[in-house]
Amino acid sequence: ETGVTQTPRHLVMGMTNKKSLKCEQHLGHNAMYWYKQSAKKPLELMFVYNFKEQTENNSVPSRFSPECPNSSHLFLHLHTLQPEDSALYLCASSQETVRRTDTQYFGPGTRLTVL
Amino acid sequence: GDSVTQMEGPVTLSEEAFLTINCTYTATGYPSLFWYVQYPGEGLQLLLKATKADDKGSNKGFEATYRKETTSFHLEKGSVQVSDSAVYFCALSPLSGGYNKLIFGAGTRLAVHP
Q1: Which of B41, B46, B101 sits opposite A103 (nearest CB)?
Q2: How far apart, in whole angstroms, are the C-alpha atoms of residue A14 and residue B23?
């Protein structure tokens, strides 16, 4: 499945580093999402974009900064992270956000380790 | 608030055994319900979904029926294979919130042995 791609697949960074995660969808969708998957916790929705506009920020700390330049690309900029931010970060897309029956398609994720 | 509760894992079965993974939900009205599967090292894939009461979703031999009276969406498969080993997530998309938002259960790990 190559509908949603994420790079890099693995990332190790120090607490003072700045890095970015990239997500690209090839499905012609208009909505994109960032999720965080931590060990022993349910998936947490972080951000939602619909037609490039942010429609949800789920109380995410400001050290995570999303960017959606167009409907096909989504970035997550990271700076001064904490070790507890280590997790699998998943990107997803769907046709749009208003239809609750729409399927969300997920990328393979970026495994982030903060030292 | 809206929530999803799944049975804790891991679930360990022999090949060809019958599988049930329980999922119950709390939500107002009639949310859409989903099962996603995550194979090792991969992202989540939609397995099946149901969007209204009494609907049955099915795919790859897996089935789940939307039961409004018991607020449940249990996943079943008649004969599991080793290749079904993965983590299974039940999720709902609530009516409230104004957009397509998924609320996930904690996930149930399934291990199938030959």
Answers
A1: B46
A2: 39
Q: Least CB-CB distance to B51: which of A40, A96, A101? A: A101
Cα(A46)–Cα(A49) distance, rounded to whole angstroms?
Answer: 10
pLDDT digits (tens, 9 = 90+) for A4-51: 999 999 999 998 889 999 999 999 999 999 999 998 788 999 999 988
User: How confident is the model over A97-115, as pLDDT tens digits?
Assistant: 666 778 899 999 999 999 9
Q: Are strands B86-93 and A64-70 parallel, antiparallel or unpaired?
A: unpaired
Tell me the pairing of strands A31-37 and B86-93.
unpaired
**DSSP letter for each residue of B58-76:** EETTEEEE-BTTTTB--EE
Ramachandran angles phi, psi of B107, nearest 5°: 95, 145
Cα separation, A51 vs A71, whole angstroms: 6
